# Entry
Amino acid sequence: MSIDFKMSNSDYHNLDSLSASGAKTIAQKGLRDFRYKKNKHLAAFDLGTAAHSLTFERSKGEAVRGPATRRGNDWINQKEECDKAGKLLLTEADYDHALAMSDSVLNNKYAAEYINESSFVAEASVMVEDPTYNVPLRARPDGWLTDLDIIVDLKTTVDPSVEGFAKQVANFQYHLQAAFYERVLRAEGHELKSFVFIAVGKEYPHSVGIYTLDGDAMREGMAAAVYSIEKYAMAREADHWPSGHEDPQVLQIPRWAFKFTNDFDR
# Structure
């Protein structure tokens, strides 16, 4: 069990352990998708990464405002320099977009209170062994108030309203993420007091919502997290990563597909 405050993002993702994102893949898709998943880098992801960097660690200068487009030698040369320095190059428009989202977050007094708290640490890597299933787990909170045991997680969203973000939590299994982090921190000897989501709208005026999950959501998230950890432990021991639907089965089409018969009502 350990906490590393300086581990790089790439080194963290190369660890042979289960993360919250891996647990979500197991819960939603299955073990085979988790084991053989190939991550694809999309330029669209850079916007969210830059918003995180500008919000939590702007002074590091890891997000760089580049040329107007990704075409031409200016982009190629700057991209090569940024890659060597471990920095993220964005177009002018994308950088300004990420900066606007970040500024909106930092101008929210509640978000700013968390981020400016003296014990706030960004991107700490926490590595533990699950006490029940004896498999390695890892977590890398966006922000962790170590003295208060509060985790802060930034999400960019199309709809930061109560109703809109609640749907995003369900669709992307953020409640599993929150519960998984709680389990990891507990194994490290910390009792998580609160998991705070900062939801910022992707579109202007980049409205911000500050949310925690109720008890029902956290219980559902923990049940999903434990399910994934158990499945991971069994697959790791046997080195067998099934999809869960290899065997022949009788398939029933969804009810909404019945347009010419009413057999499903019998």
